Amino acid sequence: MNTLLDEIVIILQRGGIADATAEATRIVQTAQTSTPADHARAARAMAERRAAGAPLAYVIGHAMFMGVELIVAEGALAPREETELLGNTALAAIRSCGSAAPRVIDMCCGSGNLACAIAHHLPAARVWASDLTDGCIAVTRRNVEHVGVSDRVVVAQGDLFGGLAGFGLEGTIDAIVCNPPYISQGKLATDRAVLLDHEPREAFDGGPYGLSIQQRVVKEALPFLRPGGILLFEIGLGQERQVKMLFDRAKAYEDIRLVANAAGEVRVVSGRKSAEM
Length: 277
Ligand SMILES: C[S@@+](CC[C@H](N)C(=O)[O-])C[C@H]1O[C@@H](n2cnc3c(N)ncnc32)[C@H](O)[C@@H]1O
Known about the structure:
The mean pLDDT is 96. This protein is of the alpha/beta class. The N and C termini lie far apart (71 Å). The chain folds into two domains: 4-60, no CATH class; 81-273, Rossmann fold, CATH 3.40.50. It has a seven-stranded mixed sheet with strand order 5-4-3-6-7-9-8, with helices on both faces. The longest helix has 15 residues, at 20-34. Helix 6 (113-121) links the parallel strand 3 and strand 4. It has ten helices and nine strands. The chain binds S-adenosylmethionine. S-adenosylmethionine (SAM) is lined by residues 76-77, 79, 83, 108-111, 113-114, 131-133, 136, 159-160, 179-181, 202-203, 213. Residues 76-77, 79, 83, 108-111, 113-114, 131-133, 136, 159-160, 179-181, 202-203, 213 line the site of S-adenosylmethionine.
């Protein structure tokens, strides 16, 4: 006999979803919880969206990031597992900086995943999360409430650090995390164009070389960092040489580190603001 789960697996398999059984299980569970009266119809609708290419997190409306459950909604990038490398590297750096009440900025916060996870794992930390778009600000605000960190996470909106002017943060920040848009416009127009089918362009478009935001953040972060404060980026595959060069050229950072994932790929670059600055 065909169960609802079997039916959902078939819809996903037709859409080319690799791990159809695991995803179908999550879709059915979500439908049962969110729409108990008509869960079969809700599950079929979710499966059709997923089969058409929408990220699973958008379809079921939530995702786990660094052990924290987050709301995921259109308008903000669905948090990626790969970004946990940036979050965990930042946590280790902040823990070892010796500050009793660390002050952290999540620049380009998207859904607020890094801000919420850092605040959750570091109960004494204060975090300022900022993004350009209305969609990201709305999702971040929901997540700050959902994770229960609204007393320690401030959400701001603007073009990079413009959103944080007037908060009196200058010279006080221990760590800035930034997962910027880092895909070149050429790639977004060709082999990576599929990314734009479901998620916002602002999440991916890193200008002509994929480095436009990093170039600005390396300079604009300096007035906010305290001497010895750290700036950490997630980077695209193969960008480590150029991003390290941006840190070097600023002539204001030391201890520049390249951090690789389990596959040996460098996906995080960090640097500390020099003490003399
Ligand atoms: C790759 S997404 C990262 C989102 C989130 N931090 C994460 O890890 O999933 C990049 C984010 O940068 C934001 N962004 C792009 N340009 C920006 C700018 N000039 N100022 C502030 N945020 C910007 C986008 O809206 C998007 O949310």
